[in-house]
Amino acid sequence: MTVTNEQGQELVNQEAGYYLQPYVYRNDTTSNSGILTGKVNNVENQQVKETIHYLYKDTGKEAVPTYTTKLGFARINDNGQWLAWTPANDTFAAVDVPVIAGYHAVDEGGNPVKAIAAITVKHDSPDADITVYYVADPQVLTYTVIDKDTQKVLENQIPLANGLSDEPLPTDTAAKYQQVIQGYQDKGYYLVSADKLPAAFDDNSSVNQNVTIYVAKRNQLHSEERTVTRTITYYDKDTGKQLDIPPVKQAVKFTRQAVISGQDGSLLGYNLDGKQDNRGNYLIEVTNGDKAWTPATGEWAASTNPILTEKGYELAEDANGQAYPLVAEGHPTALSGDEEVKAFYPEKVIVTNEELPVKRTVNYVYVNGPRKGEVAAPSVHQQVTFTRPKKVNQVTGETKVGEWTTKDDQFSAVSSPAIDYYTPSQVTVAAMQAKPDDPDITVTVEYKTAPNAVTYTIIDDTDDKTLVDHQSLTSGFADEALPASATAAYQGAIDHYRQLGYTVVSEDKLPSKFTHIDQNVVVHILMKNSLQVEHQTTTRTITYYDRTTDKQIMIEGVTEPVIQQATFARQAIVAGPHHQLLVIR
């Protein structure tokens, strides 16, 4: 609307946004109700604009229509004199920034802005040009999972995707959504329903978008395991103690699949082959649990019992003492109990017979004679052998011995051999009982021989009289040489008779050696006579006695005996060693 006075001057120009005084500024949509007074000539107008642009930050597109407003200024030429501008200054009112859901407004510096502050301008101020940017608010898409049966919220508003207002969902959101669903299916749930995903984020920044998934718990398989074990242990049969050998443990595992209610966890039955219905619930195929067990690891294998001979044991035996080389294979069931098998090892005892000989040796020795010290006859060796059992435990090393025994404990009698010219000290070595603790016995039979004499005989051939008969000259053992002293003694005897006046007629030669018999040598002599003076003294002794007592009276110098002697002599012709008287002169 334009208002002019009678001179044609604009008094009000709505498009320009200014009025002359005393009219008050109004906006372009409010009609002017002011009343013009006075005459105004030569009016000069000036306007200042304020423009506010509203743009989306990311695209630069207009978010809200541009806001524009103007302030007008005027001055009057009064008779060639320009008056002051009216008004001297004016103010653009504050402008609230329009609100766009899902966005927030920022200025060119990125600072949040909710209103454009009032701006005071003058007639020569530049136009105000302001841009407000709208930045999309961050948005979150969440999901909630609810158990349909129990109405229990399993997960609540868990972030699924992040974006900005009105922005399309990320391309992987659907896959993530499906993963959530699959995760619950993997946990034993089945899908009841799931909200459809929106195409884009909404523009409500105060409330997250949320999609809800309803699931229900499938029944579950609970794997149960049972192990049946056979333990093979090894024992010393004699002591009953377990040997320090690791037991053999054989385990057979059985499994069964229990079907557990997804709603309350109760046992529904058993599944044999993993079959499920179209919702993934396992089928109940067996209700008797004992029939649901299946073997998982085979059977008990045959087990060879170890050979412990190096440790001193015999081969393994069972509890009945029978040979037990191996424990047979076993076929347990899940209902079988654990089994313990024992193998027994007798301690090996080596039994040997110890021998103890007790010996008697009979030796025959010459103890005199020419063979003195030599063996007279071969020795006789006798032996009584005692035996006893010796038991050695090969495990403990313990040794046990029995009593010594023998079938014959006698040394038999032994006759000493006869040897000419010798006499044994024992004609028979007597029988003797032997004992195990006896030392060896040595018996020596001594053989002695008597020495044989060499004698001499002297015969007086004068009257064929034997003067010396078998007089010992020497003695010795056979084959021994006569000692030199025998020759000297023999010669001495002959010389003796020579000295006696005999003449030697003959004399046997002495033997050089002794023999096993006595030897005699003979000397024949003849008597030779000689003159021999003989004297004879006759003595008279006068003694004095007490007649009464008949005792000799011994008074020195008075009654000493008186001894008186008379000596006579004669010459005789004698012969022979005995001075046989032949003639007296």
TrEMBL record:
Residues covered by the Mub B2-like domain: 43-137, 223-313, 354-449
Domain (Mucin binding): residue spans on this chain: 141-216
InterPro entries: Mub_B2, MucBP_2
Designated name of the protein: Uncharacterized protein
